[in-house]
Amino acid sequence: MKLFRPTIIVSAHCDLPCGVYDPAQARIEAESVKAICDKYQANTDPEFRTRALIIKEQRSELVKHHLWVLWTDYFKAPHFEKYPNLHQLFNEATKLAGAGGSKGQADSAVAEQLLSKIDEIAKIFWETKQA
Amino acid sequence: MKLFRPTIIVSAHCDLPCGVYDPAQARIEAESVKAICDKYQANTDPEFRTRALIIKEQRSELVKHHLWVLWTDYFKAPHFEKYPNLHQLFNEATKLAGAGGSKGQADSAVAEQLLSKIDEIAKIFWETKQA
Amino acid sequence: MKLFRPTIIVSAHCDLPCGVYDPAQARIEAESVKAICDKYQANTDPEFRTRALIIKEQRSELVKHHLWVLWTDYFKAPHFEKYPNLHQLFNEATKLAGAGGSKGQADSAVAEQLLSKIDEIAKIFWETKQA
Amino acid sequence: MKLFRPTIIVSAHCDLPCGVYDPAQARIEAESVKAICDKYQANTDPEFRTRALIIKEQRSELVKHHLWVLWTDYFKAPHFEKYPNLHQLFNEATKLAGAGGSKGQADSAVAEQLLSKIDEIAKIFWETKQA
Amino acid sequence: MKLFRPTIIVSAHCDLPCGVYDPAQARIEAESVKAICDKYQANTDPEFRTRALIIKEQRSELVKHHLWVLWTDYFKAPHFEKYPNLHQLFNEATKLAGAGGSKGQADSAVAEQLLSKIDEIAKIFWETKQA
Amino acid sequence: MKLFRPTIIVSAHCDLPCGVYDPAQARIEAESVKAICDKYQANTDPEFRTRALIIKEQRSELVKHHLWVLWTDYFKAPHFEKYPNLHQLFNEATKLAGAGGSKGQADSAVAEQLLSKIDEIAKIFWETKQA
Ligand code: NI
Ligand code: NI
Ligand code: NI
Ligand code: NI
Ligand code: NI
Ligand code: NI
User: Fold this and answer.
1) What is the ipTM score, two decimals?
2) Phi, psi (deg, nearest 5) at residue A8
3) CA F70-F74-F77 angle, 5° bins
4) What is the third-level CATH fold of A24-130?
5) Does B8 score more than 70 pLDDT?
6) pLDDT tens digits, residue range C39-82?
7) Contacts of A54 in chain C (CB under 8 A)
8) Which of B16, B53, B91, B121 to mutate to test the interface with C (most CBs of C within 10 A)?
């Protein structure tokens, strides 16, 4: 954990469009999913576990939503030409937040895979911002 | 705009709690609010303006929500003792995203004030993470 | 239970603002939370208990939301000067509807504490309406 | 406006069911709708008016939702036998919060009709509580 | 399952109104509820079952919502005169998607009853479209 | 308009997964978007137009959501191999429901394009069901 986190340019999304996008929104929710998996595995109390599953379902859905917004609203045809695997990357990332991924399993390793996939997308995102 | 943005530790919130919090979530939406105000002032098309007001209402609500979560769920009694103005800061920040602030006015200067207030909160947040 | 309940002035909230606020909205959801806790303790059927936790999570969130709205949108600087503990009261009340309170525990006693805290807020609310 | 409002038994709804219902939830939102109509008619600023229409749409939807919950979840077959016009009353009340009513018109008189219809329902509701 | 499904005129709802309505929206969610019940009964894994209950709760709520919209927004006074049992049909159908029906029970037979009731409504709906 | 519409097998989606999917959900909302555009162009009343824009924004978002679910949750790697343009088709369709499409313009021709694109997807969907 960084001792002090500088104010950074963060970004959002909407369909005006405001023009502000940031993969951090998806990553934030995926971090939450991973922390929930960790806590789930460490705690066998049935009430806690039920609550963890309820919340993990919501956070995973938010991951999917934030990724879908980037895929549809931020990335344009030239990006998909330059990064031919970008469609597949997003499709795999959103699947990793669904039934076959972090929704279906309370498994920290799956959440890690989701985080890695989001980081791959973020890398491309920030490259396109450079361009 | 930074040329390349490194992957950073971002954080989220939920009421498990997952333990992940980050003022970036509020800031992201406030950046969006400001961009919407800028575009609103630069475009007099009535359809565009109506859409801008619809979306600004939603984004401002998200700012309020993310701030409320930090205020209630992240900050604890010892923090409020150490930072006696913290309650007021959050109250002012959330008001700045409401009817008397960015909801009620499509004014970039108001959105800037909201961003500054969020940055004051973020500074305290990251100091408490250090402690 | 009253035999006949007269039509009373009830009130709401929004960010126009419409000017209508009422602590009853938070109390209604907290009453629901308490009833859910009571039923949870009296029924060990696992399907019922899972459903109770799902719904208690939602109702607790609504309690938080309605309280946040009052704190940010109804109460103004002069109120906070006159009632110096008002910030803390709201902070404690919303925490009581969160992970450390009625979300984290299916405990009728916790729900009772939440109701009492809301009643303290309601008392102040109606005093300010008098003023 | 009453000088002091006593704590009253308020009630909610959910599908556990928690067993707590109260027509106040619908009335609260309808009061808000009426206040919005009043303010709309008194203010010709286009930004204000657009915001009023956005919020009136949401509040009217909440009226419909709270009424639907009462109609489906609180009232049972014997109630509908005893009050043969109850179905029609709910149907008219929810229509009054829709396109042909408070959604479609920013008209305080329409909002008053909606409030009256809700009061008719509330009267029956509290009679059934007596029974 | 049909081998190829032709593009058909489907319909939606909103409160403009757009004029597009279709009982298929309720049926789609009820089909989902039934499939969830089937899977629930066939799988005793506690994580799966908790997830099934979470999702069944949401899908059942959507069934209720889509039916309520038809009842309030599509059907008019002359329809209720022509089909005197229409109010009761909708009331029973929405109850079948609530606590006493598909929310309260993970029972495929209950979901089947819900589907049948929706089909009764759909039959009347399409008859009124003919008229 | 068909005189009588037979009960058909409709389908839904969720992330259990229930296994029920149907492009009709996206099409239903797109039909609504088109009807809203038609009515918007035929009616210059400012209140009506504002309401139309509010609702068109919501319906367009639902189109995007239903398409995203199909793209991520229904279609699997073998489908994307067999239909190499499927990623692009979904990306274009969701863009057509966004700022550059039916959200940004109250234009019936744009809504028609959206409907056509959804029909292209539906054709592939039903082919894969055949397989
Ligand atoms: Ni945006
Ligand atoms: Ni969290
Ligand atoms: Ni209000
Ligand atoms: Ni309830
Ligand atoms: Ni419609
Ligand atoms: Ni499903």
Assistant:
1) 0.92
2) -120, 165
3) 115
4) Four Helix Bundle (Hemerythrin (Met), subunit A) (1.20.120)
5) no
6) 999 999 999 999 999 999 999 999 999 999 999 999 999 999 99
7) 53-54, 57
8) B91
